[in-house]
Automatic annotation (TrEMBL):
The lineage of its organism: Bacteria, Bacillati, Actinomycetota, Actinomycetes, Micromonosporales. It comes from Catenuloplanes niger. This is SAM-dependent methyltransferase. Coiled coil: none annotated. InterPro entries: Methyltransf_11 (IPR013216), SAM-dependent_MTases_sf (IPR029063). The keyword Methyltransferase applies. Keywords: Methyltransferase, Transferase.
Length: 243
């Protein structure tokens, strides 16, 4: 069971506001490319692909890469910008044993109820030595993400997410070791005003899990920041690579 429902309302908000622009993703393109080394015939799984924006980006950056998209929530699959999206989950992946060259999990690990079971299943589908790439806001790592400045009450929600060490420990039980853990910057919005105008509570798990009062206070902070702020909103999330 994910932390939030990913029902029609969540999926619509996510599809509408959480697809990052390609020109803000140069850091992710470089980092993923370095670890995956895309080449003809290589197969990457976008696990928990949501509405498919990362699959779409990978296919446009590396047309020779075979990208498989899997997502458990029907409402997210129905709004996906790519096709096909197969039903499945981290502990039940519709792929053959040792058939994949990489697995990508973007802002998914906090929704997985049993990380050790997921690690075993990912181990099953990956070729020996192939990487799992985990893009996430991990517990204790809110400092470089603007959302948590505007909504400081949401830090407590983030601190309930898995930590880097917790994910490493869970995946170690399936034989994975850490290959890299690196911060990666992205342009989340062209301006604070754009961030304010496009914010949807239903699109962000941490904002769904704070009180209405805390959410309203955060919206007021963001509205004020939009009045005075200039320049793009650049956030840094982590990329944890395990092999
Ligand atoms: C914040 S969204 C991220 C979507 C997409 N990866 C992205 O970055 O745009 C989290 C996604 O994880 C999916 N999810 C929840 N539980 C999951 C599980 N056990 N295995 C795989 N995906 C899961 C949700 O349905 C949702 O689509």
């Amino acid at each position: 069971m994910a932390l939030i429902a990913y029902d029609d309302a969540d999926a619509a908000a996510f599809a509408q506001t959480r697809h990052l622009r390609d020109d803000g993703l140069a850091g992710w393109r470089a980092a993923v490319g370095r670890h995956v080394r895309p080449a003809p015939g290589k197969r990457l799984l976008d696990l928990g692909c949501g509405t498919g924006s990362w699959t779409r980006a990978f296919r446009s950056w590396w047309p020779a890469l075979d990208v498989l998209a899997v997502e458990p929530a029907a409402a997210m699959r129905e709004r996906a910008v790519i096709a096909p999206v197969l039903p499945g989950a981290a502990d039940d992946i519709p792929a053959a044993h040792a058939s994949l060259d990489a697995v990508w999990l973007s802002t998914v690990v906090h929704h997985i109820p049993d990380l050790e079971a997921a690690a075993r299943e990912i181990r099953r589908v990956l070729k020996p030595g192939a990487p799992v790439l985990i893009r996430s806001a991990f517990a204790g790592r809110h400092e470089a993400i603007h959302l948590f400045r505007w909504f400081p009450e949401a830090v407590a929600v983030l601190d309930g997410y898995p930590s880097v060490a917790g994910v490493e420990a869970a995946f170690a039980t399936a034989g994975f070791g850490t290959a890299a853990c690196e911060p990666v910057a992205q342009v989340s919005a062209r301006s604070v005003a754009e961030a304010a105008a496009t914010l949807r509570r239903a699109a962000h798990t941490p904002l769904q899990l704070i009180s209405d009062e805390a959410y309203a206070a955060g919206v007021a902070r963001l509205t004020e920041a939009a009045r005075t702020g200039s320049g793009p909103v650049v956030d840094t999330l982590d990329l944890l690579v395990l092999r």
